[in-house]
Amino acid sequence: MSLTSRAKTAKRRRLWAVVAGLGGLGVATALILTAFSDNLVFFRTPSDIVAGKVIPERRFRLGGLVEKGSVQRQSDGTTMLFRVTDTAESVTVTYKGVLPDLFREGQGVVAEGSLNRHGLFVASEVLAKHDENYMPKEVAEAIKASGQWKPGTAPAPK
């Protein structure tokens, strides 16, 4: 084998090694991005859900206020049914477990879970802030946009 053909062969090997390395890097990047997008949990308001902006069975966070007069304990003693509102729309939530101590009607709440095929939000986790005046920023913006924000009824979001 001549010196020129050896150089060409070595050059080809390097080229294939670079191509294989770039391909492996592309596959690894695609796997990381896929795993990342599967773990993203978006925040939605009841108005988003009623408008059909949510895909059923996909996890997301629902934020709003616990609607007054909507909290019901089911017969099994551990399942709670309540409605979350942004004052424009409301969504029924079911949660099985112990609710936070500060959970109550009129309180700001964030529930993580998914919407089932029947339009019921099935929560796996319910969060209530220690501050009684808590209201998620997105919910406060939705209430203001709907024109139903009444200064003095609840403090402006922080």
TrEMBL record:
Subcellular location, record wording: Cell inner membrane; Cell membrane
Residues annotated for heme binding in this entry: H130, Y134
GO molecular function: heme binding; metal ion binding
Ranges of the Extracellular topological domain: 36-158
Assigned keywords, A-Z: Cell membrane, Cytochrome c-type biogenesis, Heme, Iron, Membrane, Metal-binding, Signal-anchor, Transmembrane, Transmembrane helix
Membrane topology, from the record: Single-pass type II membrane protein
Cytoplasmic side of membrane: 1-14
Gene Ontology CC terms, in alphabetical order: plasma membrane
Alphabetized SUPFAM superfamilies for the sequence: Heme chaperone CcmE
UniProt-listed GO biological process terms: cytochrome complex assembly; protein-heme linkage
Record bears the keyword Iron: yes
Key word Transmembrane present: yes
Task performed by this protein: Heme chaperone required for the biogenesis of c-type cytochromes. Transiently binds heme delivered by CcmC and transfers the heme to apo-cytochromes in a process facilitated by CcmF and CcmH.
Family that this chain belongs to: Belongs to the CcmE/CycJ family.
Protein's name in the database: Cytochrome c-type biogenesis protein CcmE
Species in which this protein is naturally found: Elstera litoralis
Gene that this sequence comes from: ccmE
